[in-house]
Amino acid sequence: MDVSSDEEEVHTFVQVMSEKYSPDNFPYGQGIGVVVLPRPPGSPTKADRLFLPSILVLNDRGISKAGDRLNIAAFCSHVVELDLSYNQLNDWGEICTIISIIPHLEFLNLSMNPLSGAELEPSMADVFSRFRRLVLINTHVSWDAVHTLTQHTPELEELFLCLNGYDSVTESQTSCPSLRLLQITDNQLRDWAEVRKFGLLYPSLRTLVLANNSLDSVEDTKETLESLFPKLHSINLNNSGLSKWADIERLNFLPKLEEVKAKGIPLLQSYSTQERHSLLLARLSSVTVLNGGSVSNGEREDAERFFIRYYQDCPEQELPERYHILVSKYGQLAPLAEVDLSPRCTVVDVRWGERVEAVSLHLEQTVGDLKKHLKSVLQLPTNGIRLFYINRDMCSVFGPEELKCGCRALHSYRIRDGDEILVVPKAKSRCSSSDL
Predict the structure, then answer these.
(1) Confidence class of residue 413 from pLDDT cuts 50, 70 and 90?
(2) How far does CA 47 lie from the centroid of its chain?
(3) Secondary structure (DSSP) of 103-127
(4) 93 contacts 119 by C-beta, under 8 angstroms
(5) Mean confidence (pLDDT) of the chain
(6) CA dist., res. 168 & res. 188, Å (int)
(7) Mean pLDDT throughout 44-55?
(8) Would you report the helix, strand and coil content of the chain in percent, each value rounded to 5?
């Protein structure tokens, strides 16, 4: 029977593994963690042996089927991590066949496989019982399948569900108390009512990564948040939709919270960089890491003092509660003195022979700058002159001081209004090239 020329070839796990890790394609038989395995009798693999590391990476190979179970068992008994991302696996049965005969597997990456319509029967999910980390990014896996997986992985610690198009979270009657990290970035979660379900599903959660969702608020009372997330240590809210300081302040109700990321949120767009950092840090009383940077005791104190000064001129009814707490800690603070950092100027008399001109000097300039300035203002040469500074009050004691160093700033000479700059021509050398 003729096969259509455009029919795609079926790639199996066994076939791809045998091709990639053959001696011709993977000549690292003596590498750390690499096991040299002879071809078992009756194996369809062409190579007489395979060089298989304990971490298998078979991504983007078009795999859609498991292949021969005996070969998987023969070659993969030592494998602990498996990357099958960017393949064509769309059947949980094929996936379960592969992992059921890899006895020490703890990590599986299925990202970019089309699992949106695949159903996972609870009877098949027991093969995931050893897993500690599971990556299901951009698989569009259903919440029913996720719950089936977590109910059969008593040691699961990390779960990645990014880019799956979720705008809601389906509840489950069974929680996953072992989960420590949930990364669910780049979805469409908007309502806190959906996010709070994670506290019920994963009661031991320590890290919650919600970046690039549309979350528009953080709600619930202090007692509820303490109950929902009793162990949450870190939360990432980058590029969310938070627009009220009250949402930030409610994060203080999380009893173990130490790390917060909140870049790119609408609330902070109108503030300067310093204002964003200081006002955010001052409101988060227990945070020791903010936006990826550790917070020192001195940095916290500076931020809290900045917070007091920022709000101290506001009407009483507009003062945030945190303001009163910090005032009780530091007291009322005087406004910072305004320092004028604009360049200082002075007017001096510049004497060139019998000619005297009043010239305004910027004291931040250098001696070299002054020579150029005099050239343009008084049409004086720059190379054939020497400059002397005459202090009007001390000239009788010290006499003129030559301005020799071209890179020295004028302010270091303590020049004041009414002082004098004397311009004299350089003496010509007694010996010139014409004399030789």
Answers:
(1) confident
(2) 45
(3) TT--EEE-TT---TT----TTTGGG
(4) no
(5) 87
(6) 8
(7) 68
(8) 30, 20, 55
